[in-house]
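Section handout 9: paired folding examples.
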Amino acid sequence: MSNRHLLVGTRKGLLHFTLRDGSWQYDHLSFEGIQVPYACFDARNNTLWASVDHGHWGQKLHRSRDQGKTWQELETPKYPETAKRKDEPAALDLIWVIEPGGVDEPNRLYLGTNPGGLFVSDDGGDSFVFNEPLWQHPSREEFWFGAGKDTPGICSIVVNPQNPKHLTLAVSVGGIYTSLDGGLSWEGRNQGIQSEFLPNPAAEYGHDPHFITQCPALPEVLWQQNHCGIYRSTDAGLQWHEVSEKDGVARFGWPICACETNPEVAWVVPARSDMSRVAVDQSLCVARTEDGGKSWQSFRKGLPQSLCFDIVYRHAFDNTYEHLAFGSTTGNLFTSADGGESWASLGHYFPPVYAVRFYQS
């Protein structure tokens, strides 16, 4: 029987939890005192991956093949000398997201980075190749720019489970891009998105997707938390439709989760606005739609409802069937076992949480 685990990347290390007898139990800590912007599990080869930000010493990439008991540091990918930003050589600033390839590509791994470089490995992370076609896309020079950071970054990579050469990624700021040939060529997929901060809100590029995800059972259904609303696509991003609540809380935020089996179901953790990045009305809630975004229901049981300023970063919310978990910028960690209708706390004194990911072993 498989075990269910939870990885929590924080400002001060990577926390490991395991579900035992119906409750989450703390196991151990990796990289004590060091930032872990992202961590995930590769089910194809039972490997844990972690991006580690050493600050002064820069970005590092680690893998573990024994459930995080020991870690191997790998050679950090480097931007080629030909990669320029504003006539200056581009350099790796952050490994923001790690994504395994398809099941029939057992050694393929993708890294999304700041300042906007995509790195690809076909030997299980021993070496990486810089994806030139994306970097050379004609939209990059004019429409890629920094938002929360000074540089654009690839914050989401989605691999179609039915066709691993079909890739969709999000550049913050830049927009959604899709490849149908495993990264040899890329095209924008931003039709229908409206970004008020652009001179032309409906421009082809220059949008700020906070996070994108897919329904694994029907991968042409994509969900997006965008700087300017919540969006859904039912045709693999060819056309996006805004599904934000006009008068409710589900309008602005960072993370979004899609149900694995039902393309009509998704969850978000709302924040007040881009100008006031705190919990809505100083109370924390999770919003769920069961009809493709036509309506949203907010759930608050077990979550703080007064003097709460928590928000949730884009990678700090995850789901696996009925289980959900998220961690906040103020170090609160919550889990749900009933589809988000009620929540239990795993603790209130963690470092700021950057990433939350489930896995089974």
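Moving on to protein 2 of 2.
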Amino acid sequence: MYGLLAVVVVSFGVNWPVMSAGVRHISPVWMGAFRVGSSLLVFACMAVARGRLRLPPRSDWPIVASLALFGMSAVNILVFTALQIVPPGRSSVLTWTTPLWAVPIAAVFLGDRMTRSRWAGLALGIAGVVVLFEPWRLDWGDRQVVVGHLLLLLAAVINAAVSVHIRGHRWTITPLDALPWQLAGATAVLSLVAWLTEGAPRVEWTPLLVGNVAYQGVLVSGLALWAQIVIFRNIDPVSANLSMMGVPAIGVAASAVFAAEAVTFEVAAGLALIVSGVAVHLLSDRQRKPVDM
């Protein structure tokens, strides 16, 4: 099971330079639509094979809509748009701040207590974000660079809010059974937004580009996401989440190898601070009951 976890972490990490390469050939919203749509095929086939493809009860519609509209559609648009501006390694680290923002959001909406360790983890993470932003070097006159970083942080905050909604929701069906419907909703939304804002897709499909989209949608958002769900059902959630912190580290390393992105002191220090902040939070939260997948 830990070998499978290692495969998942590497797959998610390597996906960052793959996504960055994809948006050089496909406009960002269509890229999100193709990725989510191919993932839909994987989970729909799995649901049919398991005999579990059925319409969610009305009580689960709010969480299905939340994930489709925000967790998948909005986040994909923000991340793919930002990847046209911000290098993939740095993007992976900024997006990984999601667990940090989930802490204060859960405190407000779920009544979680902000302990000293949680405050410390949040402070470490915010310090890492500041280091990554490099405000002492950032060209504040370059609006694109500033906006690109802010889009990634907004995506992380939206993901955090959705994760809190997932934890606070009283599930009637399992999250795995709800996934095909969330993906179907996100595919419809992203396709509509893409058509309205970017027009008909103009893509020169090559074997390499087909492989890029398949890697993102079928392997990472499909099979690797399914494997992650299986892992979280069979491994202590704190250990699994701590292991998933290897994703941004792999993202930085893979971006250096495949996208020739320089691993600067600021990127390394920001990564270390953010990962430390998330680790402090996770280790202080061992008693949380995991969601039934």
